[in-house]
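Worked example

This section walks through a single chain of length 758. The input is the sequence exactly as stored; nothing has been trimmed or padded.
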Amino acid sequence: MGGQKFQYDESGGTFFYFLLSFLALLLIPGTYYWWPRKIKQVTVLNECHCGDCKKKKLLLQSNEPWKGTKQLFIKLLIISGWMILILLAYKVSQFDYEYANFDPYEILGVPLGSSQADIKKSYRKLSLILHPDKETGNEKAFMKLTKAYQALTDDEARRNWEKYGNPDGPGAMSFGIALPSWIVEKENSVWVLGLYALVFMVALPTVVGMWWYKSIRYSGDQVLLDTTQMYYYFFHKTPSMALKRVIMILAASLEFEKKHNGEIVERSTDNEEVPHLIKQIPNLSEKNRERPLCFTYSIKARALLHAHLNRIPLNPETLDKDRQYIVKKCPYLIQEMVNCVSQLILLAYARRILRLPNIETIENCMKLCPMIVQGMWEYKSPLLQLPHITEENLKYFSSKKRHIKSIQQFVQLTHAERRHILRNLSDEQYEDVMNVVSKMPHIDFQVRSEVIDDENPTVYTAGAIVTVTVTLVRYTLSVVLGEDTLSDAIKPQDTSNFSKGDEEEEDDKKEELVNAKKPVWQKQQKKGKKGGKKNTKNQKPVGRTVAAKKSEDKSSNVAETAPSKQEVSKKAAPDTGDESEGSEDDADHSDDDENQHSQGERTSADDDDTEWEKLQRRLSKREKALEGKRKQSHSVHCPSFPEDKQEYWWVYISDRKSRTLLTSPYHVTALVHEEEVQLRFTAPRWPGVYTFTVCLRSDSYLGFDQTHDIKLDVKEAPEVPTAHPQWDMLDDEEEEPEADGSDVSEFTTDEDVEDEQD
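Given that input, the structure is written out below as tokens.
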């Protein structure tokens, strides 16, 4: 067997193989991820043509001026890469073909076993034609011809060819190093070592160090860790925090300071414009001496947030640009504030901190997010979220017959009534209003509570882990409008993102009741003693439509005409009128046995089906958890927000009577059509009937929050058997409850509330 042979070849096939594989590894995933795609996303911004939406559309286009050029450059780069890959593949294929089809007899055009004279004669004849100095010359073919001539004129090489098919003999292994020859040449060694040192000792450590330094400063949601620590400090210091205080903490975020964020722009004109803006805003608390609430950047950010909520016009070249940047960062910072407060509440339950943050604090944080997205205060009318609706237009929504306060009430009106209310708007403006309304969310909010992996999942014992499954199905308010009340100008909902089954479900839901409940945490309006009853008679009930009444009538008719179980069993029984009574009894007993047997089989089959469905649900939940959280749902109509905002929700459970939070708020970020959320909490330690509230809050719209009350009849937990000696030791180690009544439940039962009222 021949020795090993190493070759460093710049033009050889091995280096081309390396280039081909390396380029393929870059191009295949790069084309999949970086090829520009036109995502057909139907946004509310495209449906509305109001002045604010037009300004926002121009703003979004100006934020990415080189987007088209960048996409064109990426396409050209990918296409050129694929062309180079095809050329390399063709070159390698030709290279392999030449080496695989090297036959010296065929190249010289002589038969196998020809004499030396015939070989030399053929070589002279072909060399006169293929020599590079001739007009018909071919350098590559001439080199191949010379190699074939040398292989046949050398006796040893000819014998090797005829015997082994290789002029070099048997077993000669050739290793081609996938490097160009200039890398291993002696005169280039200094430059090669310098390049290696520059890349691996300077550039790579610098890049890794910069990435590491940046990553340790931010949390998973790209919020500065120093900002998170500041949130923890203030929320622990002030357990019950008002809404304006939350705005002060938000404005003090270190993302708005030049030292911590290089994107912040400090202008000389701020010394004149910011004090002038502060004079226009009452109760800004700019004289607060707390650090960092008293810092200049914090006061400026606070003034800009108040100007945003009051919709005060700002200088488009200076302060308005700063406002856009601050407002754009607020949803992420508010989500971090919600996480901080929920963590503090959980730490308080675990007895690690003394002060328990109030539930109003975390709800004020959640409430602030839709306020900033829509650019309005919470006490303002939710109707101001619609295009072309101003404070002057609100007077048309109130009359002697009706008093429209919410968008849901406005939707329940007929087309003629809505057009009469908006009579001061043109047809184009009215079309914009209805287009935006038809895209707003209508959430079907279903709640189910159980104790999973228990013999009786609906029996709640003290200290049990209660699982509350919240099912959210999103529809648009066009479902409430109905086909008979839709104007011709309104386009139907775009269902390109939904399947056929989803469309059928949405058609079925068009006759369902619209639940427009008012949140529990909002104070109900006081009614007069005299006029209260009259208004309740004349005013339409909130959340009821004509379609809902029809559906209720249909359900009542079905309930009346539906046969009972006894009638069905009588009809299903065989006709034995001519037989005796004894035979009838025997037949009845046999039928009962058969029915019991068939019912047992059905119940077992039903149990298997339910177990299979539960298994499928668990597997699907695990797959979703592995996929990670998506942050793509539906676009929000928010002209005051400088970016395209996606529609997110918070779901959590609270005890409104004891004003405590039972579960951490779950952030729903991918509610395209349906989403299922599981919330778990520990049942109270004392038996009784408890009422808890499942809350659904929007981070994008005002007036779209919902609540659902669940009642838990908590039973006393069964005694644990103490037959095992280890259990006896554990029971001895347990501490007895104190006699002064300090070991009481943190929840409030319905009986306690009734006793307090008595």
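What to look for: Confidence is low (pLDDT under 50) at residues 1-8, 483-587, 733-745.
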